[in-house]
């Protein structure tokens, strides 16, 4: 990389990984359009995948006590069910169209939540994780809907390796505590990206330029983590919920234009 490209990639890594250190998601999909435009897909994707794995592993190790293992296994179960269907769909359907439809769904869902949280912050929101549970039938219907989101997230991940936004929609409902939300999602990303990195190693993706590029990004990653950690501990649950859906909204737009 030239010095200018190195600095631009580093700045992108710092900002996007600080956001993930705050929320527990979003760094790869937000950084991908910029980094791949600067260094190409074959270089950018492995670098970002490795940095995301390091960040998620750091959160898992340091915030282990906040992980909600019950919800983690629920997520893994339903995402795992959807994976093979996504792999089959990728082979038979137009991937470009499917990805645009997914992005539009994420924009609509996140945009509605942003509107509710900013325009009616003091009103009870039945879609908010902290809201009291309704009748048994209503709770069951809500659960089924969110399980379907996870299943769809598995399908999307099988097709595009980008099912995270749908998982985030589920986690925003079931993991109201910001520490648990972040740590549980990071355990999921650590698990998924470990499989991905093992595949990279087996297929010889990690060439010398990619390894050196990844090593060069580590100071930017560390700085992003420090900034994100400070912000995460300062924001309250209400502001944290707003940040989650703002990042998710940005993710949808980035998926739409990528």
Q: Summarize this, please?
A:
With 258 residues, the chain is mainly α. It has helices spanning 3-23, 27-39, 41-62, 69-92, 95-119, 136-160, 164-174, 178-202, 208-234, 237-257.
Question: Can you summarize the main beta sheet?
Answer: none
Given the helix and strand composition, which structural class is it?
A: mainly alpha
Beta-strand portion reads under 5%
Q: What are the segments in which pLDDT stays under 50 over at least 5 consecutive residues? A: 123-133
End-to-end distance, in Å? Answer: 22 Å
Count of individual domains: 1
Provide the gyration radius in Å.
18 Å
Q: How would the global form be characterised?
A: globular
Descriptive report:
The protein has 258 residues and is mainly alpha-helical. The chain has one domain. It contains 10 helices and no strands. The protein has helices at 3-23, 27-39, 41-62, 69-92, 95-119, 136-160, 164-174, 178-202, 208-234, 237-257. The longest helix is centred in the C-terminal third of the chain and has 27 residues, at 208-234. Mean pLDDT is 83; it is low at 123-133.
